[in-house]
Amino acid sequence: MTLPALPEESFRRVLCVVAHPDDMEYGTSAAVARWTARGIDVGYLLLTRGEAGMPNPPEETARLRLAEQRAACAVVGVKHLTVLDHPDGVLVHGLDLRRDICREIRRFKPDVVLGSGYEIETPYGFEHADHRAAGLATLDAVRDAGNRWVFPEQIDDEDLEPHSARWYVVPQTAGPRATHGVEITGEPLRRGVASLEAHAAYLAALADHPAPADLIPKFTAMSGKAMGVEHAVLFRAHDLQAPPEFVTEEPQD
Hints:
Helix content: 25-40%
Number of strands: 9
Oligomer: single chain
Strand content: 15-25%
Order of helices and strands: EHEHEHEEEHHEEHHHEH
């Protein structure tokens, strides 16, 4: 069975929430390049500055990685970049993190929130603890943002309003959990590769990291098979406004 495309024709604003600089650039940014080219407003929310990701002193690393992230955003047409100051490497899922993500959802008012996975094991090994914390906190914050009695100070003191996103999507590698895909063959893939190449200093500090031009097309070609196209990015998508399946199922005789 071929996976369907995400209903991106209905997307207006997408907020991507990740733990670190470079997290969006391992394939997902190619889908972002397609969306921005179609006039969709995409914002990135980074929960840390990535200061623990290189052997340099943390403040130097943070400055370097954020400069590279801004360059990566420019490559794929992202004009809204918000960076929080939670500690890299020891990100904690809790009220503080949920509150900050909720604030950005209420501020940016996306109809789509893109989060990260919170499983412990992935097809490529154990998931990074920061990624798991970010994914779970984002999932919770999507619900928090629509409830005016959760973090009410943002409404009363910061002039924000409750906001309920329509879609929650999580990038997936090729596998049974993916429900939808985005074709990125051609220019979106080229821009996606270039966005990872923008993290040149960070990649140079990683031993034996493959060249982005070799790595990203390899992953996206595997994902493309699930959609019947040359290159794709896959997602597990949840329509948060759809009725539960048990409501829509046909009654059994």
